Amino acid sequence: MTNESASRKVIVPGEVIVKGKEYLPGEGTEKKGEEIVAMRFGLVEEVDRIVKVIPLSGVYQPRRGNVVIGKVEMVTFNGWVLNIGAADTGFLSLMEVPRFVNKDAMDEVMSIGDMVVAKIWAINQRGIDLSLKQKGLGVIDEGMIMKINSNKVPRVIGKEGSMIKLIKDETGCNITVGQNGLIWVQGKNVEDELFAKRAILFVEEKSYLHGLTDELTKWFKENKK
Question: What is the distance, to the nearest Å, from the Cα of residue 74 to the centroid of all Cα atoms in its chain?
Fold first, then answer.
């Protein structure tokens, strides 16, 4: 099985993807004897003999290290509670904000309704712990926020970031993709942001296609302003 042939295939749970001792099961698959079997509906991907299924449907499953975009829902005495579209809310502690915060004026840093780019640094029984201690994280104060199915995020980003780079280059927008499906688009004007949004929605809609980068390139040629 080659990367090209694998990436074309939409698989259903229980379907045998490939057979052979040399293959190893990755996310969304299991090994039965010498067969790699799909455990969920999605697109097959094989890299270095590791076979996985990228889901095309379902809810966001948070993971440590994910960059997400969330909405502040509550301000507490020691941090902020954010809705990140997962089963549990995220908590951003004062200790994970890379600046001095006056506990008597926490609303001046982040208030209810603010949208924030954060990173998941821990998941435990209490919930999901967030951090802003990385470049590019913080409160969103301009641009546009859009939402896609979180399971389509890998397709929007593309292999080694190729898809999102194409969209950035063609639209001139800065784009931050949250693994939870929220995307921050920041352009020179609203028209550029809307153009980027249309391109992202095109990728989401056509995520099942093989050669999606070529299809998007064609789309840009046909829809260039």
Answer: 24
